[in-house]
Write a structure and sequence with these properties.
There is one protein chain. This protein is an alpha+beta fold. It folds into four domains: about 35-45 and about 275-345, Beta Barrel (conserved putative lor/sdh protein from methanococcus maripaludis s2 fold); about 50-60 and about 190-265, Efflux pump adaptor protein, beta barrel domain (Elongation Factor Tu (Ef-tu), domain 3, Beta Barrel), CATH 2.40.30.170; about 65-95 and about 155-190, OB fold (Dihydrolipoamide Acetyltransferase, E2P); about 95-155, Helix hairpin bin (Helix Hairpins, Orthogonal Bundle), CATH 1.10.287.470. Helix content is about 25%, strand content about 35%. It has a six-stranded antiparallel β-barrel. Strands 3-10-8-5 form a four-stranded antiparallel β-sheet, with no helix packed on it. The longest helix is centred in the N-terminal third of the chain and has 29 residues, at about 95-125. The protein is rod-shaped, with a radius of gyration of 39 Å.
Length: about 350
């Protein structure tokens, strides 16, 4: 009886072992999908990490418009976003006081003008002295100057557009009492468009006015507009530690950039700056050496590199990779030597990397 049980148990174990082997063989036959990796080329384009800056579109000339006199804002004739022409009336103050002052000054001038005419006749008849006539003439001239001033004050109650443009914003409403010089509108003049960005303090020496740039509007991905750095602030912002800069858009395509639109500015590194890689691409070994993963033939290969001084988010490459290599920019710590990978660029498009 015991021999039969032992024989049955042995046959059962053999069957289970054979089933396990069959299962293992089937699992081994299941193909493993290549790991998707993000790749970049060192310094191949100004759009690599550390060379792209977010900003928004502004007019090259932006004017804060205000009344030259104070008073009650009687009417606001335009809204934000409205196109205006040079000389167009944008807003009006209550003209009551200014008109009364102008009328009083005019009446005084007319009275003194009549007195001056009588003094001229009396001087010709030698009934008044020359000095008396000169005093009357001076009084008339002062009255005329006061009238011209009051007339200008009356005209200053109407705020006009100094040039063609678009009302970028309004900062006062009808019925509000405003002071002389208080902002009422911001006018974005027609013509040049530029993108306001901030340049990192650590790399400010890599940039200069006139340096070429490429602008990509968020509303039109893939469409590149040529431009150049027009100005860089002399001092860094104390809060952000960045230098405010303006990138002017060149050519007729600048009209495609609407005011306030978000944009990304790509600025090529200086010719003497060499190749650069994002910091996320660099892997450090246990022995302190640095390396990157390069995709060649559809497989990941670890390659030692020599690096320069680390920047804010990128590092110069002194040796080990060339401008045509596709380097894994993220997730390198998960890769193994010779692992099959599927490289894609920053727009998630497949890249034919390392076909050689």
């Amino acid at each position: 009886m015991k021999k039969r049980r032992a024989a049955w148990f042995g046959r059962s174990m053999a069957v289970l072992a054979s089933l396990a082997l069959v299962g293992c063989s089937r699992e081994a036959q299941v193909p493993v999908a290549p790991r998707t990796v993000l790749v970049v080329q060192p310094g191949s384009a100004p759009g690599m990490a550390g060379e792209a800056f977010a900003g928004d579109v502004h007019a090259r000339e932006e004017s804060v418009l205000a009344f030259r006199v104070g008073g009650n804002l009687a009417r606001r004739l335009v809204d934000a976003g409205q196109a205006v022409k040079q000389g167009q009336v944008l807003a009006e103050l209550d003209p009551g006081d200014a008109q009364l002052q102008a009328s009083a000054a005019r009446a005084d001038m007319v009275r003194l003008q009549g007195d001056l005419a009588r003094y001229r006749t009396l001087l010709a008849q030698q009934l008044v002295s020359q000095s008396a006539y000169d005093a009357q003439d001076a009084a008339y001239r002062a009255a005329r100057a006061k009238y011209d001033l009051m007339r200008n004050q009356d005209d200053y109650t109407r705020l006009r557009a100094p040039r063609d443009g678009v009302i970028a914003s309004r900062q006062a409403e009808a019925g509000q009492v405003v002071a002389a010089g208080q902002p009422i509108f911001v006018l974005a003049a027609d013509g040049g468009r530029e993108v306001a960005i901030g340049l990192p303090e650590a790399r400010i020496r890599d940039f200069h006015t006139g340096q070429p740039a490429v602008v990509e509007l968020w509303s039109a991905p893939g469409k590149r507009l040529p431009g150049h750095i027009r100005e860089i602030a002399a001092a860094a912002d104390p809060q952000t530690r960045t230098y405010a800069a303006r990138v002017a858009l060149d050519g007729a395509l600048a009209a495609d950039a609407g005011l306030g639109q978000s944009a990304r500015v790509y600025i090529a590194a200086r010719a003497d700056a060499g190749l650069r890689l994002p910091l996320s691409a660099v892997q450090r070994g246990e022995d302190g050496t640095t390396a990157v993963w390069v995709v060649a033939g559809g497989k990941a290969q670890r390659r030692p590199v020599r690096l320069g001084g680390y920047g804010e988010d990128s590092v110069p490459v002194l040796g080990g990779v060339g401008p045509g290599d596709w380097v894994v920019a993220a997730g390198g710590h998960l890769l193994r030597e010779g692992e099959q990978v599927a490289p894609v660029d920053r727009r998630n498009r497949p890249v034919a990397a390392g076909a050689r």
